[in-house]
Amino acid sequence: MNPTLIEVLRGSTVESRHAGAVAIVDAVGAVHTALGDIDRPVFPRSAVKLLQALPLVASGAADAYQLTDAELALACASHSGEPAHVATAAGVLAKLGLDETSLECGTQWPSREPVLRGMVARGEAATPLHNNCSGKHSGFVCVACLMARQAGAEAAQFARGYVAADHPVMREVSAALSAATGVDVEHAPRGTDGCSIPTFALPLRALALAFARAGTGQGLSPAHARAAQRLREAAARAPFMVGGTDRFDTRVMQAFGERLFCKIGAEGVYCAALPELGLGVALKIDDGAARAAEAAMADVAQTLLRTEDELLRGYSHAVLRNWRGTEVGALRPAQELSTGLRGPRH
Question: What's the CATH number for 4-342?
Answer without folding.
Answer: 3.40.710
